[in-house]
Amino acid sequence: MYFKPLLKIIGVFLFTAALTSFTHKPEWNNLLDKNLSQWEMYLSYRHKPGYNGKVPVNDKGEQVQPVGYNKNEANVFTVIEDKGQPVLRVSGEIYGCIFTKAEYENYHFKAKVKWGEKKWDPRSDKLRDSGILYHSVGEAGKDYWRAWMLSQEFQLMEGHMGDYWNIANAAIDVRAFIPEGIMNPVANEKQPFLPIGSNTGTSGFCLRSENHESSKGEWTQIELICFEGKSLHIVNGHVVMVLQNSRYVENGTSIPLTKGKIQMQSEAAETFYKDVMIKELKALPAEYTSYFK
Fold first, then answer.
1. Which residues are in the 3-keto-alpha-glucoside-1,2-lyase/3-keto-2-hydroxy-glucal hydratase domain (predicted)?
2. Which end of the chain, N or C, is less packed with Cβ atoms under 10 Å?
C-alpha cells in the first residue's frame, strides 16, 4: 500500500524534471530598465565651436573641470516609457556616455535607435551623431573630446549608421570601403583586411559599405557581434562593416583589445534607444563566418 504514494511522488518529480529540461533561461539579457541599474555615466564639457582638443578654460584662463562620473547634469540621460517599455533618451547637451557596469567579451549586442529633434554646439549645424563604443577600457576622457574611454566605435550618424572610428589609441583591421575608395567587403568578401587606427599610418575612420538606416522618425535596428577580436556592424539586418584583430597601441606595442564595457555616447544630438539587449556567444554564428575567410 506504500507503492502508490511513492509512485505518485516519483511521477511528480519526473514530470517536474521534464518541464525543467525544456524550460531554458532567455538567451538575451535586457540591459535597459527605468533606473539604468546596469549602467554608470560620465559627462565631459559643454564643448563650443572651435574646440581644439585642449582642456577648455574659462574667462580667467583657468582650466574647466569636466562634470565627471555619475553626475547627471541637465538630465542628459533619462528613461521614459513607451507602450510600457523603457526608452533611453540621451539629450546630447553635454559630451559623455553611459557605460555598462559589467565587461563583455564574446557577445551579440542589439538595440533600436532613433534620432530626436534637438542638436547642440559644437554640432548644431552638422549631421546628428552618436555611437556605440565597445571593448571600452580604462578611464573616460582619453579621446580627443575628453569624453570617452579607449574603445572601438560602431558609429551612429545620419546617413552613416555602422561606420567605424577608433577612440583614443585603438586600432583594428578592416575589410570595408575606405574613403580613398579601394575596397568593399559586401561586394567582394575576399578583399584583404587593412590596418586602421593608432600606429598604422591610416586614419582611424572607415565608411560603412552601404546605407541601410531607416527613414527619418523610424527606429533603426543595430546589431554588434564581437568574437575573439573580430566584430561585425549590422544595420537593419545588413552587414556593413567587417573588422578583426582588435587592439590598442601603447608605447609602440600592440595589445589585444577583445573585451570591455559598452558605452553609449552623448554627442550633441538627441538620441533615443530601446530594446537594448545582449547575449553571450560561445562561437561566431555560422552565418557570419564567411566574412572572415
1. 27-279
2. N
Q: What are the b/e assignments for 139-153, b being 16+ CB within 10 Å?
A: ebbbbebbbbbbbbb
Pairing state between β 164-167 and 170-175: unpaired
Q: Give the three-class secondary structure for 136.
A: strand
Give the strand pairing for 194-197 and 170-175.
antiparallel
> What are the φ and ψ backbone dihedral angles of 49, each rounded to 5 degrees?
-55, 140
Helix (H, G, I), strand (E, B) or coil at 209: coil
Longest alpha-carbon distance in the chain: 94
**Helices and strands (DSSP H and E) totals, the chain:** 1, 19
Q: What is the pLDDT of residue 188?
A: 46
Instruction: Look at the alpha carbons of 31, 34, 40, 45 in this order and tell me if their dihedral is positive or negative.
Output: positive
Domain boundaries, the chain: 26-292
pLDDT of 19 above 70: no
Mean pLDDT within 159-183: 81
pLDDT exceeds 60 at position 245: yes
Amino acid 42: pLDDT: 98
* 96 vs 68: CA distance, rounded Å: 9
The CATH homologous superfamily for domain 26-292 is Exo-inulinase; domain 1 (2.60.120.560)
Helix (H) or strand (E) holding 273: strand 269-280
DSSP 192: P
- Other Cβ atoms less than 10 A from the Cβ of 284: the count is 18
